[in-house]
Description:
27% strand; FAD/NAD-bd_sf; FAD-dependent oxidoreductase
Amino acid sequence: MAIIGAGIAGAAAAHRLREAGRPVVVLDKGRGPGGRMATRRGPDSLRFDHGAQYFTARDPRFKARVEDWTTRGVAAPWGGAERFVGVTGMTAPVRDLLDGIDLRCGRAVGRLVRDGRSWRLQEADGAALCEDAAFSAVLLTCPAPQALALLAGAGEDLPGVAEVRYAPCWTLMLAHDGPPLADAPVREDRDPDATIAWIARNDSKPGRDGGGTLVAHAAPAWSRAHLEDAAEDVAERLVAALRERMPVGAIRHRAAHRWRYAAVERAVGEPCLFAPETGLGFAGDGCLGPRVEFAFLSGLALAGRALGEAAR
């Protein structure tokens, strides 16, 4: 089987399939796994969790996984008993799930091509990916618009994928010599008209080095209004907005990253989508909602459907 997308949903699905003894290949267009559980390297060994900031664990299946991660040092609590982060970056849990699995990053799948009862993968220009392999199932765990484009190109449909909606987010990664947030490791602003919705002391997370590092997420409305702005202009605007909220010292590093599909605003409302007659499926936070835990559970559900298990 092939999985397109190496975020937490794709990793959970791949891990479950491998446990069942099924061969699986995971492809992702990014330079490494993690998806929106992302960690960006900066100069002087700086690291920023510039995507998902933490995860919670409420479902028994995910709680068991998180307990295992914390026991082995893959994850740790942060800023409260219900918040967990990867150690030493948010990508750590995804990498752990993908350990020993055939992972191929930097591979952008552009087309799904029918080959009898199987599927072959191609780049957008028609060049073959996984040249010697035909897959009985292709599980799409990338954002819904990307999955929808692949389905449409193959002349297929999974009802529900087109209904998923996301809010974008511009993220500021900043290293500065000013004082840290004085009151808490995070500050949150739920005002829809705010410029910045979330500020986190990245250096307060377990296993992080480099003092004075923080991550700020712009609010959805502001991000939409500036979605196509240049990253450097966005960074400058967000630093100015940050100065209104806290003291900012001499800046050692700053960068902005655009998440076009950051947080799900409208989900499918089902654990996953799967068409056994074609072997095509879809999973991710677009199915159950904008939480790491939901994406993990969606990936598990899709793997189960691909294995022929009854829906849970």
